[in-house]
Amino acid sequence: xxxxxxxxxxxxxxxxxxxxxxxxxxxxxxxxxxxxxxxxxxxxxxxxxxxxxxxxxxxxxxxxxxxxxxxxxxxxxxxxxxxxxxxxxxxxxxxxxxxxxxxxxxxxxxxxxxxxxxxxxxxxxxxxxxxxxxxxxxxxxxxxxxxxxxxxxxxxxxxxxxxxxxxxxxxxxxxxxxxxxxxxxxxxxxxxxxxxxxxxxxxxxxxxxxxxxxxxxxxxxxxxxxxxxxxxxxxxxxxxxxxxxxxxxxxxxxxxxxxxxxxxxxxxxxxxxxxxxxxxxxxxxxx
Length: 287
Prior knowledge:
single chain, globular, 287 residues, five-stranded parallel sheet, three-stranded antiparallel sheet, alpha/beta, 11 helices
């Protein structure tokens, strides 16, 4: 795999950071295990009995909506006091991962494209990104392009928790990809069927990614989603979804996917079962 002069760090709901949608901007919440300063969050894991039968659990996008409109982004101390969770600005995340030195070496993502794939997308993503950039003093990305290669997106329904969750996830993904790789172009690929569990939504995602790859539209594909391993009916059902990853391997395009590691919020809601995504199987499937 390659990242040609591109700095790409996976900023996901259950990876580096969780999204806190505190208008007008979004900031990254403390990781489930260790934060930039080395601080940790204690988590009480449910026992085997509590986890029994969780193959039927539907895991929704894990964006936690908290906060209220305010004139400027909250500080870490503000979030800890008001919401009992830490939040970090782009500058803090960059410093934690020693990114200023990388930027100084000329690696900002300039000349490359990050492809972000999400079900439904967000009807306000352009406004959201502009608000985020203004709040944190970031320049706009070279471009933000939105495509729907797998079919038309259903009309946004603000009463649908699924669509609202995906809108928050999309905003999180786009804002933080831009915050970490400010020089990269952003290509948002929206799909018309919600990815929930098992094969649900994956055929459309694979079709959309195949379109991107066949038209050479991106250098990195970011997938901030995963599905529980037990909800796939068979190994064959996973193998049937590997076409996009085979194309990516042939064209040396990097694919990032959620690891399935449960974040604090998922554990507390008893969704802490082992999860797997077809991308995680990429190496074994292609051997």
